[in-house]
Task: structure prediction
Amino acid sequence: MNIDNKEEKVDMEILIIGGGIIGLSIAFELIEKGFKVTIVEKDKIGKGASWVAGGMLAPQAEGLDGEFLNFCLESRNLYKDFVKKVEEKTKQETGYWECGILKLAFSEEEAKQIKKDVERFKNLGLKAKWLDRNELMKEYKDLGDEVIGGALYEDDAQVDNRKLCTALANYIRKNAKVLENTKVLKIEEKDGKFSKIITDRGEFTADLCVLSAGAWSGELLDIPVFPLKGEMLALDIEKEDINRVLYSSKAYLIPRSDFHRLVVGATQENVGFKDGNTALGTLKLLKGSIDTLKNLANKNIQELWYGYRPATPDELPILGESGVDNLILATGHHRNGILLAPITAKIISEYIAENKSSKYLELFSVKRFKT
Ligand code: GLY
Result:
C-alpha cells in the first residue's frame, strides 16, 4: 500500500468487490474503524456461497494441520467475540452454537486416521476424545450399523451462516454504500496502482480495493481461484434426533439450534459453474444421512440447494498484496470461508488501517503461485 498517514487513511474510500461473508466481514471491521466503504456485488449481498454453506466451525473435524490449522484455530477462537459484536450492533441473532462435532469412522482405515488425529490434537493441547461404537450407542440409539466409532471435538462449533450473513448485510446496508446486481467486468490499474473498476452499471473509483469475490475472483484477476461445486439439502428434524454436528466421509449433519432443520452436506465436484442439484448428489447426501442415523429415513426433505466453494490449487486462501498497489486480495477460502471470516476480516482490516503485518499475509500471499 502506498498511503502511510493514519489520519489520511480513515478518509480513504474503500471498494470491496463481493458481498459474501468475507467481503461483509471485512466491510464490518473497516466501518467500525471509521472507513467509508462501498460494496459491489453481482447479486444480493449476503448470498452466494456464504448463504449456501453449512456454517461448521470445524478445524479439527476437517483434519487440518500445520500453519493452516493454527490460522483456523485462531479464527475459531475469535468467533464468539465476533458474533457477539455483530449481534450487539444489529440486534439479530447468528445461531452461533458451541455444539461440538463428532467425527465418525465408517471403516477401520478411517478409524485409524481419526485416532491418529485425536493423538495429534491432544499433543497440541486441543480437546479430542475417541469414543467407540458402544459409547456412541448410549447417546445415538439410531446410529448406522457401519459406524465403528468416532472422535468428539468439543471445541468445534457452528454458526447459522444465513443468520450471520443476514445480520452483517443489514448492518452494511445501513453503514456503507451497497451496489447490488452490479457485475464487475474489469479491475483497472494505472502506473502499478489500483485506479478503478468497470462494471455493467458504470465505472467506480476508490483509494483502495479489496477483491473478495469468492469463486468468481479468478474471472477478474489472473489468480488461481476456481469453483468447487457442493450440493446440499436440509431435512425436518425434532430436538431428540441429534444434538451436535455429526461429520463423516459420507456426509455432515448440522442440526440448527432451533431443532427445526438439519443441514446435510456436501458433495464436492470440480465441474465449473454447473447449476442444479443432481439425482446422484441428492442420493449421496440422503444415503450418507441415513447411514449415519437410521431414523433420518423418515424425515421430510425441507430444501435442496448448491453452491460454489472458492478453491485454490493448494486449498489455502489467497490474502493480502496483489502485486498492484492498493488492490488487496481476500479470497480462495475453499471449504472454510465461514470459519475464516473473523480472522480474515481482522488481518485485512488491520493491514489496511495500520499497515499491520501478519505472518498469515506472508504464508497465504498470492506470490506462492508466481515463480
Ligand atoms: N465446509 C464444508 C464444505 O465446504 O463442504
Summary: The first strand starts at residue 13 and ends at 17. The mean pLDDT is 96.
